[in-house]
Write a structure and sequence with these properties.
Layout (H helix, E strand, L loop, with lengths): L3 E2 L7 H9 L4 E6 L10 H8 L4 E7 L4 H10 L7 E4 L5 H6 L4 E2 L8 H13 L2 H18 L7 H11 L18 H17 L5
Parallel strand pairs: 1-2, 2-3, 3-4, 4-5
Length: 201
């Protein structure tokens, strides 16, 4: 391993990150509480990001633009640290707020579109960026929905719909069962995404 992603911990989070950093560089992780995360306050985040061994932070709020804005704002005091978006539901917007890379479950499928989205933002091709943001947002709107832990199966469905894996390779034995209508919605989203990739709005 080249670095560690530190799953959030409420008990002495600064000391926890400091201890991990004695072994490898650390990426802090702000994760929404329903997924087991901890709502670190600004003081704690500043203290974590001030650690020399912490190279950045992944932010995954699920659906809280305001929380992402808050953390992106305090990152201005840590310009040498990397803001990593974990925001499948507002990927494009998170880039406009300062995220410089992504670590997202949605990246398992339609990866090329998400790479193109990030490259269009970096290069200043904002017409393409807005179009691809819409494509990615529509895809996320059918894959990152309650129950959110069903996203693994939905990603497998997406890969099958895109011809990457066989249709019968989509079982997630640890995830919740999902209705057939959800698979139909994922298939439709894949078809729409592929059709819209090169089509101006």
């Amino acid at each position: 391993a080249d670095a560690l992603l530190a799953f959030p911990r409420a008990d002495d989070p600064v000391g926890y990150h400091e201890a991990l950093g004695r072994e490898l560089p650390v990426i802090a992780f702000y994760l929404y509480e329903a997924a087991g995360g901890v709502a670190y306050d600004n003081q704690t985040l500043h203290a974590i990001l001030a650690l020399p061994s912490v190279i950045g932070i992944k932010v995954a709020t699920l659906d809280s633009v305001v929380t992402f804005q808050r953390i992106a704002g305090l990152m201005r005091d840590h310009p040498d640290k990397l803001l990593i978006t974990g925001e499948d539901r507002f990927l494009g917007y998170s880039l406009t707020m300062g995220a410089r890379t992504a670590l997202i479950g949605m990246g398992a499928a339609l990866t090329d579109l998400q790479v193109a989205l990030m490259e269009s933002f970096r290069s200043g091709d904002f017409g393409k960026f807005v179009r691809l943001s819409g494509v990615c947002d529509r895809f996320a709107s059918v894959t990152f929905v309650p129950p959110v832990e069903g996203y693994v199966r939905r990603m497998l469905w997406a890969l099958a719909a895109d011809g990457v894996i066989p249709d019968d390779a989509c079982d997630d034995p640890w995830g919740p069962s999902l209705p057939p209508a959800e698979r139909d919605a994922v298939r439709h989203a894949i078809r729409e995404a592929r059709a819209r990739r090169h089509t101006p709005p």
